[in-house]
Specification:
Blueprint (H helix, E strand, L loop, with lengths): L13 H16 L3 H8 L3 H9 L6 H11 L4 H10 L7 H12 L2 E6 L10 H10 L4 H13 L12 E6 H5 L5 H15 L4 E6 L12 E6 L5 E6 L4 E4 L2 H17 L3 H14 L7
Parallel strand pairs: 1-2, 2-3
Antiparallel strand pairs: 1-4, 4-5, 5-6
Organism: Streptomyces galilaeus
Protein name: Helix-turn-helix domain-containing protein
Pfam families: DUF5753, HTH_31
């Protein structure tokens, strides 16, 4: 079984890096494209186009390759980076994606949208389309975002605590049924042993993170990094003193938020207040 490579923020264009990694893994294992077709079920031309950079394939194909090569989620992480145009993935965000894939603990505060790790397909589709994406680019970005949900699944999934501003729950989708699915998905996610959901009501007033989405990632070496994002820019914070200050602010916000049971009741009330589905 090949050892997992360390994914670094190389200057190499993500799409090319993905293709080169696919070719290298296949040659190391001694597989031909035809053998991949027989073993995994997709055509040899599919794998050939992926290795040649003409296609990125689907997340299902990439996950099957990760399993085949014993590379855990390395290829899926590279695929996520390659899905978008390189100019949309600044070096800091590429490093963040690497840290997220390796994190052993996550904490997040969300200002206006459910965390990407907890978004349904329908939510991701409407949100990304609202940003101007269309066609194949839109489909690929939706796949890239929703495939990240697998990080929180399985017996070895890291613990994830998220604080949702009430604004997240008030800014509904245009599609009422998809919005219902999203709220139900939040409730279902909160029932998993590794996921904790808090709601921060408007009535708690101003606080130190009210304009900034913030994610903390605890890494295998015991260090913690943070990623902050607003309407203008995102920033990866690695300096320990800054991370500590941010985390203290996060702790204050967590103390203001509803506890998990109260938060569940809050979301349930919002579901009950949604218009009933029309009878057929």
């Amino acid at each position: 079984m090949p050892s997992r490579r360390v994914i670094t923020g190389r200057s190499q264009e993500p799409r090319r890096r993905f293709a080169e990694e696919l070719r290298l893994l296949r040659t190391e294992k001694g597989d031909s494209l035809r053998q991949l077709e027989v073993v995994l079920g997709w055509s040899a031309s599919t794998f050939g186009k992926m290795e040649g950079g003409q296609s990125l394939g689907s997340p299902e194909v990439v996950e099957a390759l990760d399993q085949h090569y014993g590379t855990k989620s390395m290829l899926l992480t590279l695929w996520e980076l390659a899905v978008g145009d390189p100019s949309q993935f600044k070096e800091q965000y590429r490093r963040y994606m690497t840290f997220e894939a390796e994190a052993v603990g996550l904490w997040q505060y969300s200002v206006s949208a459910p965390p990407g790790l907890l978004q349904t397909d329908g939510y991701a589709l409407e949100a990304l389309a609202a940003g101007g994406l269309k066609g194949e680019e839109l489909n690929q970005q939706v796949q890239a975002r929703t495939s990240r949900r697998k990080l929180l699944e399985g017996e070895e999934a890291p613990p994830f605590r998220v604080i949702l501003s009430e604004a997240v729950l008030r800014m509904s989708l245009c599609d009422a049924q998809e919005w219902r699915f999203q709220l139900e998905h939040l409730l279902e996610a909160a029932e998993r042993p590794n996921i904790t959901v808090h709601v921060l009501p408007f009535g708690t007033g101003p606080h130190g993170l009210m304009n900034t989405d913030t994610m903390f990632l605890r890494l295998l070496d015991g260090t913690t990094v943070a990623y902050t994002e607003n309407d203008v820019r995102g920033e990866l914070v690695e300096e320990s003193s800054r991370v500590e200050r941010l985390h203290r602010t996060y702790d204050v916000v967590r103390d203001l938020a509803l506890n998990p049971a109260e938060s569940r009741s809050f979301i349930l009330r919002m579901l009950e207040d949604l218009p009933c589905e029309p009878s057929t």
